Amino acid sequence: MNAIAFTGVTKKYGDVVAVDGLTLDIPIGSTVALLGPNGAGKSTSINMLLGLLRPTSGDIKVFGNGPDQAVTRGDIGAMLQEGSLIPELTVRESVDFIRRLYPDPLPLDEVLRMADLTDLAGRRADKLSGGQTQRVRFALAIAGGPKLLLLDEPTAAMDVESRRSFWDNMRAYAAQGRTIVFATHYLEEADENSDRVVVIARGQVVADGTAAEIKSGVAGHAVSFRLGSQSAAGLDALSGVSAVEIQADRVTLRTGDPDATVEALYRKTTLDVRDLQIHGADLEDAFLALTKES
Amino acid sequence: MPHYLKIELLRMFRNKRYVIFVVVFPVVFYLLYSNLWGSEVDQATGVKASVILMVSMAAYGALAASIMSSAVPWAQERQSGWLRQLQITPLPGWAIITTKLIASMVLVLPSLLLVGLAAVLTQHVSLPVGEWFGLIGALWIGVIPFVALGLTIGSLLPPDTAQPVAMIGMFGLALLGGLWFPVDIMPSAMKSIAHVLPSYDYASIGWNIVAGDAPETSAVLGIAGWAVALGALAVLAYRRATVRA
Ligand SMILES: Nc1ncnc2c1ncn2[C@@H]1O[C@H](COP(=O)(O)OP(=O)(O)OP(=O)(O)O)[C@@H](O)[C@H]1O
Ligand SMILES: [Mg+2]
């Protein structure tokens, strides 16, 4: 059975079409990234799954039922894009309160541990930093032990260190056979933490597959090295290269296939390649490439 | 639900604004006023001012508590996204407004009891046991329209406007309802306003009880009418605030 099934779902705000005929199935147990730029319709889709918004047309099922039923049964937990806590309550009080609203919650200490909050449990919400608040919101999302976890840009406001442990915690939660959907702007984040990436633009699915599949379809990688005083002639003819950019003494080759480009660089040229760097596709490039097609 | 109630009470007791306006103010003003005029005696009823002031300040405290603990916290929860956090849990929608009503009513008790205690301890006020129960019971149940008003304000307005509107509503009702100055010394235009306000009906039920009289039917009907009207308004406003479009 699918955890989530969108069938021809459209959501309009007046004239603005936020979600445009979205059809998408997400099987139980998968971890899916919703990747898209600002205004793509990610939050609107997530809020419709939670019954906070109603589709203008189309149908949404969560574990075979309507969103309201799924929420009432405690099947869904979510970290919305925005939201703050009750300032006067401590971390433990808030988490325990939300936990007890669910029929089959996780033990309190386990929730605190899974969100790295054990040391902050006694602190009042108005004394938390932005990143710490995010962790509490993650704890609220998992406290009820929901089968489906929805995360809307969960790492906003987190530093590099917290991001890493956040994703570790999320994977630990996913490993218990649960379904996870998260929204993000970053292909790398999607790549590292999901087993399927759904790229959304203007309310529609523009690409759907594993991160590797998505990236390979995109000329968004780059290979760069120190060129010094050597000539750049012929670099644009190397396999995979779509553009050549020179800045100071560095050259950057835009490519859809970095492996092939690097190989050609060594085999087909006599250049002295110094300080080679390979950059993954970033969202900007991926997105530009993907929306061009549609 | 009992746990939700506990959480609501806990957070208000930690809220400085609530504690100052609701718990400290009425007691301090009672001590001040009763020191100045406590021993005067009302000509019509023969009741000492220390007793009348006790009713007035308890009524003010309860009025303040019911509005302060409902309007602004609720407006803040809507704006901050806490309401949505609750809406995506199995907690049913009606449980939120019901818990808020019950929590506000519990939060009214400290000011009622503390003003009464201050009156007993400093002015040696003594009433028959039945009158104590009648007074506290009436002032307790009688706050329902004010809680409903607070919840309506919190449902309709964002926190930065809910705050001044709740304050003006609270002081306006207290002042015009005769809780700070007797209605008898007001100009006649104000007097006629006072007589239609729920705060006047509310306090006059208390004044009647300490005078040993039964509350006037008009006051009881007045409060009941306001409770029904504002209660209905609160439910409508709550529906509007929680609608899913
Ligand atoms: N309440 C609203 N009223 C009118 N338009 C809205 C409303 N909410 C969202 N929109 C519009 O709907 C579109 C989709 O918004 P949505 O918030 O779903 O995007 P998103 O993918 O989550 O973007 P972001 O990455 O910025 O969070 C945008 O064009 C947005 O302006
Ligand atoms: Mg969003």
Question: What secondary-structure arrangement, pairings included, does this model have?
Answer:
The complex is a heterodimer of chains A (294) and B (245).
Chain A: E1 2-13, E2 16-27, E3 31-35, H1 42-49, E4 57-62, H2 67-72, E5 76-79, H3 91-99, H4 108-114, H5 130-142, E6 148-152, H6 160-174, E7 179-184, H7 187-193, E8 196-201, E9 204-209, H8 211-216, E10 221-226, E11 241-247, E12 250-255, H9 258-268, E13 274-279, H10 283-293
Parallel strand pairs in A: 3-7, 3-8, 5-6, 6-7
Antiparallel strand pairs in A: 1-2, 1-4, 8-9, 10-12, 10-13, 11-12
Helix pairs in contact in A: 3-5
Chain B: H1 2-13, H2 16-37, H3 49-68, H4 71-80, H5 82-87, H6 93-123, H7 129-141, H8 144-156, H9 159-176, H10 188-196, H11 198-210, H12 217-242
Helix pairs in contact in B: 1-6, 2-3, 2-6, 3-6, 3-8, 3-9, 3-11, 4-8, 4-9, 6-7, 6-8, 7-11, 8-9, 8-12, 11-12
Adenosine-5'-triphosphate binds at residues 13, 16, 18, 36, 38-44, 81 of chain A.
GO molecular function, one term (chain B): ABC-type transporter activity
Keywords (chain B): Antibiotic resistance, Membrane, Transmembrane, Transmembrane helix
Subcellular location (chain B): Membrane
